Amino acid sequence: MNALQPPFFRELQASRRVMIAGMGGGFDVFCGLPLYFALKAEGKEVFLANYSFTSLGLGPNGPLPPAVVPVTPDLIVTPGEYFPEYWLSRWLVTQGEPGTVYAFRKVGVQPLKTAYEALVRHLNLDTIILVDGGTDSLMRGDESGLGTPHEDATSLVAVNELSGPKTLLACLGFGVDHFHGVSHADYLEATADLTRSGAYLGAFSLTPDLPPVQKYRDACEAAFQMMPRYTSIVNSSILSAIDGHYGDHHVTSRTHGSELWINPLMGLYWTYQLPPVARRLGYYGPLLQTTTLTDVGLVIERHREQVPIRPRVNIPV
Fold first, then answer.
1. Count of CB atoms situated within 10 Å of the CB of 39
2. pLDDT tens, residue by residue, 253-296
């Protein structure tokens, strides 16, 4: 092993059955694809899941609870329909990969925890890696801007409440949450805090020559083609950064009229032990009993009313 290899990979050495799960909804699972293909190349069994923004139909789930739906290519979906998990499942099959992507419904912590517990048993998982497309998953609740915390916080708490599997967090897309009001000075401060506690597992770059990155690009482009009205701003920004673009560079009409800051830091994975990240969350306790995403929103709102909000700080560089 390379002596300079990030600790993140040492953490995964003994892992054999790994789930990579998008924690914030939408296209977050796509941000885990470079890890998916890299770990598969090491001979590990790897599975994909995503907190879904799609309205998932009801049907027989076999041994799984209602909050999780196995998405496969044989579903009937209208071309252009917003369903990232489905279009990913179709693309995976064209690559000779298993075509199941597990989609979690828009629920609170309790049903999501139950869904994860069922998947741990069903798939015999020993490791779960939550993936955030962006960096707002490290916001503890008293920052000037939290980004879009509802799904991230729900996933973070639900997975941290599991007993058994090793749990890790990977963030990809430094800078994209500026659009949602996040100060990345807060993110860097959080990473420094986690470094002091030994929970930061290092950062590493995705470069265009790497086969797992090329697979990631192919998957994104295939999904964008099938959902042209819903091109992922996060993933298209990350891919632009990997290609070496900088500044106000646009590849989708969805960003026209806004100013982007495409930068090389967007192409880095920032990795962490998950439990210390979860313990930083100021409203962890009240989230435990939530059952709906509306409950989650109320918990966050109440927390913000009760704590002093720290003033916004910009990165002084």
1. 21
2. 777 777 778 999 999 999 999 999 999 999 999 999 999 999 99
Give the domain ranges of the chain.
14-306
Q: Are 135 and 174 in contact (CB under 8 A)?
A: yes
Going by the DSSP 8-state scheme, the letter that residue 270 receives in this structure is E
Type and span of the H or E element at 202: strand 200-205
Residue 291 tokens read as 């059952």
Q: Is the pLDDT of residue 60 over 70?
A: no
Nearest to 310 by CA among 192, 145, 147, 148: 145
Amino acid identity of residue 51, one-letter, is Y
Mean model confidence pLDDT for the chain:
94
pTM (global) more than 0.85: yes
Concatenate the DSSP letters of all residues of 94-148 into one string. HTTS---EEEE-SB-HHHHHHHHHHHHHHHT-SEEEEEEESSGGG--S-SS---S
Q: Which two three-digit tokens encode residue 204? A: 């590493």
- Cα 147 to Cα 135, 197, 245: the distances in Å are 9, 24, 24
**pLDDT tens digits for range 17-29:** 999 999 999 999 9
Q: Is 277 helix (H, G, I), strand (E, B) or coil?
A: helix
- Interatomic CA distance for residues 204 and 209, integer angstroms: 14
List strands edge to edge, sheet with 68-71: 68-71, 101-104, 45-51, 17-22, 127-133, 166-172, 268-273, 200-205
Q: What is the CATH number of domain 14-306?
A: 3.40.50
- Residues 35, 155: Cα–Cα separation, whole Å: 19
Place of tokens 């966050």: 300
Q: What is the pLDDT of residues 180-219, one digit of tens each?
A: 789 999 999 999 999 999 999 999 999 999 999 999 999 9
